Amino acid sequence: MAKARFAAALIVLFFAGASAAQKQDQKAAKKELQPEEIIKAFTAKESQFLEAWNQYYYKQVATVKVLTDDGVPSNEAMTMVFEVVFLDNGKRDIKLVERTGHLRSVLWTPDDQDVITNYQPFALTTKDLSSYDLKYEGKERVDELDTHVFSVKPKTLADGKLYFEGKIWIDDGDLQIVRTVGKIVPQKENPQFPEFETIRQLIDKKYWFPTWSHADSVLEYTKPVPRRVHVEETITYNDFKRFTSTVTVKPVKK
Fold first, then answer.
1. Where are the domains of the chain?
2. Class of domain 33-242
3. Would you state the pLDDT for residue 175?
4. Contact 225, 101 (CB under 8 A)
5. What is the pLDDT of residue 154?
6. What does pTM read for this prediction?
7. Distance between CA atoms of 117 and 65, rounded to whole angstroms?
8. Sheet with 207-221, side-by-side order of all strands
9. Cross-strand pairs, 147
10. CB 140 within 8 A of CB 167
11. Label partner for 180 (CA 20 to 30 A): which of 21, 82, 141, 162?
């Protein structure tokens, strides 16, 4: 009986070892994509992401707080709630449905609102790729994801246009952006744009949509008098519901 148990144990160990070796062989055999291939793949996915994003309803809550010099929240804060609506003609619109609080130290302008509703999240599509320089920074583990990191900056700054400058993290499996850290450029004297970190999560098992953005920056103002203002902004996205879509994320050939 003891010999039988010993033999069974050897069989289990053999197959466990064989399985582990097979997984190692499969991992080693996986083709290592070059930066140019990663860029081509994720920008194609971003084009699909942006098309899908424009076909989803969601609620966006933005909270802006003015902090003291040592980072303690003051009594100065404002919260805005936006909802995506689809008009009878099928067009998409973002409506401000609620606004509470008031800012005294910071001038909140239409440009600021445009940034949080239209330039967040940043999407680097195939169409926009020619406007940016990308530099591969290597691999990095983000939570449970293996990612490729790229620095991104605009090649030129065209008059009247806003661009993204910062870093993006590309999931090694899905080849989609899962994290961005950067700011909108060019910066203006009044208002300045803070640096945002944006985290995406998988929605409907196919699209990496933003769910949380955060900025904690000291902004330099020149008007009406020179001053420095410590501002914290938090944006959340939730209640995702598909309006209508025929968009699918196509597999990328490796």
1. 1-30, 33-242
2. mainly beta
3. 95
4. no
5. 97
6. 0.79
7. 18
8. 92-102, 73-86, 56-67, 227-242, 207-221, 196-203, 177-185, 163-171, 145-154, 132-142
9. 140, 171
10. no
11. 82
